[in-house]
Specification:
Elements: E1 3-5, E2 10-22, E3 38-42, E4 51-53, E5 71-75, E6 79-91, E7 103-112, H1 113-117, H2 119-122, E8 146-150, E9 154-157, E10 164-174, H3 177-193, H4 207-225, H5 238-264, H6 274-289, H7 307-313, H8 318-352, H9 362-365
Antiparallel strand pairs: 1-2, 2-6, 3-5, 4-7, 5-6, 7-10, 8-10, 9-10
Helix pairs in contact: 3-4, 4-5, 5-8, 6-8
Transmembrane segments: 178-201, 207-226, 238-264, 328-349
GO cellular component, one term: membrane
Membrane topology: Multi-pass membrane protein
Length: 367
C-alpha cells in the first residue's frame, strides 16, 4: 500500500497480478522440438486478455495496452503465464466513525475488458482465482499510520449486472496510539481537572480565572488537534462529538463558577427566596444523611423539611447557598463526565474488538 486517503476515499497500492490463460493455438508437441516445454514471447505476438481496474479513480484504461514488448511464458500445453504489475488507485468507501480505532475495507475490482460487452455470454465462467505465489504480508513495508491485512480474493458480481470481476479485498486498521496519547488522554485530563474549580474557595478570587483558563485551554487544544482528526461529515468521527461535548462541559463549569461567585458576594441584606432556601436545605440534608453512618451527625437533622424552622436554628445565608451549589454541581458534573467517558470508550471498544484477522471479507460475502 502506498497511501490511503480516508477523506477522499482513495487507496493507492502497488501490486502484481499473475494472469494465466489457455490458448490452444500456441500448443506444440515437445518431442518434435527437442523436448522444449517453455517459450518466452512478446505480448505483441500473441492474443492476451485485456484487463482493467473497474473501480479506478483515474482514467479507465487497459493495463497492458502499452506493454507490447513485455514477455509472457507459454507452455507446450498452450498455457500462457503473464505478470501484470503497477500502481493502482482505486475508490474506497471509508468509515471514520470510530476514529482512531477505525477499520476500513477496500478492494480492487479487476475485470476482463471483453466481459464488459459479453457479460451475458461468459458470466463468471471466464474468471478463476488461484493461490497467490507469495504472501503479500511478507513483502509490504510497514506503515506508520495504517496496519495492513490482506484478505482472500473472490469472484464478485458487479452491482446488479451480469458482469463478474476478481475482487482483491484489503483491510486497513489505523494505528491508534499516537492519537490516543496525544489527543484523547490530554482532553480527558483537562475534563477531570475542571472539577477542581469547585474546590477553590470563592473568597480567594482565583476560581473564575481558573475556569476561564481551562476553557481557553480546550479551545486552543481543539485548534491544535484539529489536524489529527479527519475532516469529514459523512460520517462525522465520534471524537469530534467528544471534543465538542468537552468544550460545552467546560463552558458550563465556567458559567456556573461566575454565577456562584456572584451569589457568594450578594449583600447580606438581600432577601433569599424560598427556592434557594429549599435547595440549600435539601443539599445539606443529603450531605448530612450520608454522614449518619459515621455517627458524626444527628439523624433528626434530615427529618425536618420546613425551611423556616431550619432558618431559625441555623440562618441560611448567601454563603451557605453558594456552598450548596458547589456540592451539587461538582456531583452533577462528576456524574456527567464519568458517564460520557464510559459511553465514549464503549463505542470505541466496540470497533477495536472486531476480528481484524478474519481471512474472509464482507465484500466477498455480500457478493
Amino acid at each position: 500500500m502506498n497511501d490511503f486517503d480516508e477523506i477522499k476515499g482513495i487507496i493507492h497500492t502497488v501490486g502484481i497480478i499473475y494472469v494465466t490463460w489457455n490458448d490452444s493455438r500456441l500448443s506444440w508437441k515437445k518431442d518434435d522440438y527437442a523436448g522444449v516445454r517453455f517459450l518466452s514471447v512478446h505480448l505483441r505476438d500473441i492474443w492476451r486478455p485485456e484487463i482493467s481496474l473497474l473501480n479506478t479513480v483515474g482514467k479507465f484504461e487497459i493495463f497492458d495496452r502499452h506493454q507490447d514488448y513485455f514477455v509472457a511464458w507459454v507452455t507446450d500445453k498452450g498455457q500462457v503465464h503473464y505478470s501484470l504489475g503497477g500502481v493502482y488507485s482505486a475508490s474506497c468507501d471509508p468509515d471514520v466513525t470510530y476514529f482512531p480505532f477505525d477499520v476500513h475495507e477496500c478492494y480492487l475490482s479487476f475485470v476482463p475488458f471483453s466481459d464488459i460487452f459479453f457479460s451475458k455470454i461468459f458470466k463468471n465462467e471466464s474468471i478463476q482465482l488461484t493461490e497467490p505465489l507469495f504472501n503479500s504480508s511478507d513483502i509490504h513495508d510497514e506503515d506508520g499510520e495504517w496496519d495492513y491485512h490482506a484478505m482472500t480474493p473472490c469472484v464478485r458480481r458487479v452491482g446488479n449486472s451480469n458482469l463478474f470481476g476478481a475482487a482483491i479485498p484489503i483491510r486497513l486498521q489505523r494505528r491508534w496510539k499516537f492519537v490516543f496519547f496525544n489527543v484523547i488522554i490530554p482532553v480527558l485530563l483537562l475534563g477531570y481537572l475542571n472539577l477542581f474549580v469547585y474546590s477553590i474557595p470563592v473568597e480567594a478570587g482565583e476560581r473564575v480565572s481558573f475556569a476561564i483558563t481551562l476553557l481557553l485551554s480546550y479551545t486552543v487544544f481543539m485548534i491544535v488537534t484539529a489536524e489529527s482528526i479527519p475532516e469529514t461529515s459523512a460520517p462525522m468521527p465520534l471524537l469530534s462529538y467528544f471534543l465538542v461535548f468537552k468544550l460545552i462541559y467546560s463552558a458550563c463549569i465556567a458559567v456556573s463558577s461566575i454565577t456562584i461567585s456572584r451569589i457568594y458576594h450578594n449583600d447580606k441584606d438581600h432577601p433569599i427566596t424560598m427556592p434557594y432556601r429549599k435547595f440549600t436545605n435539601s443539599v445539606e440534608c443529603i450531605g448530612n444523611c450520608l454522614k449518619i453512618r459515621s455517627g458524626s451527625v444527628n439523624e433528626d437533622i434530615c427529618d425536618n423539611d420546613d425551611p423556616e424552622t431550619i432558618q431559625e436554628t441555623k440562618p441560611i445565608t448567601w454563603i451557605r447557598v453558594s456552598k450548596a451549589l458547589d456540592h451539587a454541581l461538582v456531583t452533577l458534573f462528576s456524574l456527567v463526565i464519568l458517564t460520557e467517558t464510559v459511553v465514549f470508550f464503549a463505542f470505541l471498544l466496540q470497533s477495536y474488538t472486531r476480528n481484524l484477522h478474519d481471512d474472509f471479507s464482507s465484500i466477498c460475502d455480500s457478493s
